[in-house]
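Internal ticket #5521
Category: modeling
Description: The requester needs a full-assembly model to guide mutagenesis choices. All entity lines are attached below as received. Residue total reported by intake: 604.
Assigned to: D.W.
Attached entities:
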Amino acid sequence: MNPHTPLKIALIQMACGADTGANLAAALTRVEDAARRGARVVCLPELFRSPYFCQREDPALFELAEPVPGPSTDALSRVAGRHNVVILVPVFERRAAGIYHNSLAVLDGDGKMAGLYRKMHVPDDPAYYEKFYFTPGDTGFQAIQTRAGNIGALICWDQWYPEAARLTALQGAEMLFYPTAIGWHPSEKSRDGATQRRAWQIMHHSHAIANGVFVAAVNRVGHEPSAGGEGLEFWGSSFICDPFGEVLAEASVDKEETVFADVDLGRVEEVRRHWPFLRDRRVDAYGGITRRFLDGGDRGAC
Amino acid sequence: MNPHTPLKIALIQMACGADTGANLAAALTRVEDAARRGARVVCLPELFRSPYFCQREDPALFELAEPVPGPSTDALSRVAGRHNVVILVPVFERRAAGIYHNSLAVLDGDGKMAGLYRKMHVPDDPAYYEKFYFTPGDTGFQAIQTRAGNIGALICWDQWYPEAARLTALQGAEMLFYPTAIGWHPSEKSRDGATQRRAWQIMHHSHAIANGVFVAAVNRVGHEPSAGGEGLEFWGSSFICDPFGEVLAEASVDKEETVFADVDLGRVEEVRRHWPFLRDRRVDAYGGITRRFLDGGDRGAC
């Protein structure tokens, strides 16, 4: 593909209800609609088939998991092949009895699976009890070549880790996608809500700038209650930014919508020629990154 | 020190003229004034003793270099000891014949040198011909314990590298300081100026968020001409932000001024307890960071 041909990207910001079949049906309809409107890459939000079940720890909820390939990827593969569209499909993956992952399947435009990423950074925060459900990924970081460009597959909590963005970009990814389920604790929203959302935006923009890539985050919307708790209000705000960190398109905080943007993948090389950050990395001095903490005093001296 | 005692930080945003003696005299006056007003840590801008000479490549300009310790650090050490103030002193360092560095000396409150950092990431861009002058640093990244907290010493171009911030924070730095000389090519300012400055701010804010530390950038101001060129307009905007990336104080784009902020170093632990990013780093999968590019396909699988 000519790198200067605009590539239409679509981000499906949606609410996810208790009926997993209805969530899949809604996703299929919206992905198909986006493809008909010219999208070549479409991304769904993290764990879109169900409410964000990690608000509590309940072994019964492992029933929500499915294999990959499995029902969700099969259904979306048919759409991918029919419309020649690349689809990023988050799945609560059952890999084996006792091994479940928060995963992201990348389906190519021929309907085949181009790659699979399993969330590497798994959070555990009040109402985000993911360490109970998800075995940490062992795929490493994944830049996946597709008919519509080289796609970096990442998921939510990965957004806080510059290492994840870097390792994905260093494999050749031109666009990083972060399907996401992030929101406010309602009681914190008035005091800290704006700061929290801004920090989340900044991290994504910084990955774009540091690596000279496009970055997209795709979040869900809506308040999801929890038994005995205040629930979570997912803040939407799905967006895509260019390699300078400039936002090209952004969704509301509270409405289901599909965000479209035309991206020129030629910008990746153009921006990196003007801001040649990759040229000057001190790879001789970065060894300490693989350590938990440098209380031993390793300064990467060289 | 009680971590909840506010610590006053001062950032000296200044213009740097052709008279190196006058630049030092101005710096001494302003650092002393900041100390009298209660500052416990004061930071000067990158290469403050001279105009930004890297706009051209001229062997005669190595005459601007001086040893460390040397005239600049000696003069500022006296101020540090007299006022019990930590001072960050950028120096064009002559280390040996043919080995010059873009360095940052950290002087402790007793006037002694607490540590020395030599710029690890050295740029080379039109009008920023630093690779001609500066040998890449071999100090590694430096978190320097002082009477006023653990200080991360970094310089300008390092700001674009999440690895630098991370490796400094992992040594225990509570505050990252980036003395800087960054500005606009006047002919680009109207089209790209806002985007460039915003990208620079975002990177700093992201280091604060990703690492749960305070971050300060200290820039010069003013237009500095170049023979045969349009010169550079340094954009000031010196600022300090908290571990959520929220700006506490920020200077103008064009005026000499001293920016003060009271920081509570206890916020570092408090923020990291709420946003426990350091806990979940996948150190088992970060080995590829020490590679130039992962065209060999290393995905950090584990």
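Resolution: model delivered.
Comment from assignee: The CA atoms of residues 141 and 168 of chain A lie 6 Å apart.
Ticket closed.
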